[in-house]
Amino acid sequence: LDIFQRYDNVFIIDAMQTSKFNPGMLYCLNAHDDNLLKEDLHTSTHAFTLYQAIELAKTLYFLPPVCILFGIVGHQFGHDSKLSHAVEMKMPELKSNLLERISYFMNSIA
User: Fold this and answer.
1) 93 touches 49 (CB < 8 A)
2) How many CB atoms lie within 10 A of CB 100?
3) Other CB atoms within 10 A of residue 10 CB
4) 24 vs 85: CA distance, rounded Å
5) What is the pLDDT of residues 59-89, one digit of tens each?
6) Can you give the pLDDT at residue 107?
């Protein structure tokens, strides 16, 4: 939550676990959207889920004006798991999408 308070533009990258889409599927979601995929953000290896963190930030008015979530559907979520081939193949596209979005916001505030 501290990051949400300190910055006006936040870009989050996270692996998502869902049965609806195949591993490697990319998401790009606006955290202000009330239609966040709650069911797809419900699991986490952290203390609480990304969905819970975003909803708490909204409630406390900590969510920055720009908060974009880049997600990639993962395949293996064990602590010793390696990147699956499907996810690894999508990493260049994820990087490109992220850099494009950051560039857009940097140009719009310049």
Assistant:
1) no
2) 9
3) 18
4) 9
5) 999 999 999 999 898 888 778 888 889 999 9
6) 86
Contacts for 75 with CB less than 8 Å, ≥ 6 apart:
23, 24, 84, 86, 87
What is the DSSP secondary-structure string of 11-70? EEEEEE--SSS-TT-EEEEETT-TT--GGGS---SSSS-HHHHHHHHHHTT---SEEEEE
What gap in Å lies between CA 43 and CA 64, rounded to an integer? 23
Q: What is the pTM of this model?
A: 0.80
Q: What is the mean pLDDT of residues 45-58?
A: 78
Instruction: Give the SS3 label for residue 85.
Output: helix
Cα angle: 107, vertex 12, 23; to 5 degrees: 120
